[in-house]
């Protein structure tokens, strides 16, 4: 691990120098295998699993034999709800199931640290000293993004108390707003730029070391 820095800006986009990042969170060698497994588990856990088709026993009708067994010259059939009939049941169709996978907490922590380290090595981590906006305005949010050179998908990590930036950024379709305890490896890799505040960048470091996100759909193993 080596020293990792990120550019520090004011809320109006004025450069304030660099800020040191925790090398144990933003400066490790990314583990691609763990990242793949954890993100796959997260996407699987997010699936509803409510898909369902009816079997021939569940389709309404078909109680009577459509025609007699012999003498018609046609193929023999016992029900119009057979899977080979139009409107019949489905053979081997999907049934409701749970797609979630159990993932050890250590793997989830390592995946998040790996994702943050990968983004930090690319220079995609930006820190805002603090938001001092008086009233929520989307114009302020777009001006800040333009000033720091952020375009495309952006992950904004703010606390629940940061109401003004949340209201300012929420109308931007390419911006995802999350709290420090809800940052996931998938969110970090989804975004091209990750914007922290000087408060949340320290909170994520603590969360990564001791806690696990509660909103990533991944079942935990001790």
**Which strands sit side by side, in order, in the main sheet?**
2-1-4-7-5-6
Radius of gyration: 26 Å
**Average pLDDT for all residues:** 89
List SSEs in N-to-C order.
EEHHEHEHEHEHEHE
What does the secondary structure layout of this molecule look like, with pairings?
Elements: E1 4-9, E2 15-21, H1 23-26, H2 32-45, E3 102-104, H3 105-121, E4 125-128, H4 138-147, E5 154-157, H5 163-169, E6 175-178, H6 185-190, E7 193-197, H7 200-210, E8 219-221
Helix pairs in contact: 2-3, 4-5
In summary, what is this structure?
This protein has seven helices and eight strands, in the order ββααβαβαβαβαβαβ.
Care to describe what's here?
This protein folds into two domains: 166 residues, Ribosomal protein L4/L1 (Ribosomal Protein L4, Chain: A, 3-Layer(aba) Sandwich); 41 residues, no CATH class. The chain is built from seven helices and eight strands; from the N terminus they run ββααβαβαβαβαβαβ. The mean pLDDT is 89. The two termini are 27 Å apart. Helix 2 packs across helix 3 and helix 4 packs across helix 5. The protein is elongated and about 90 Å long. With 222 residues, the chain is of the alpha/beta class. A hairpin with a 5-residue loop joins strand 1 and strand 2. The strands form two sheets. A six-stranded mixed β-sheet has the order 2-1-4-7-5-6. The chain has a two-stranded parallel sheet with strand order 3-8.
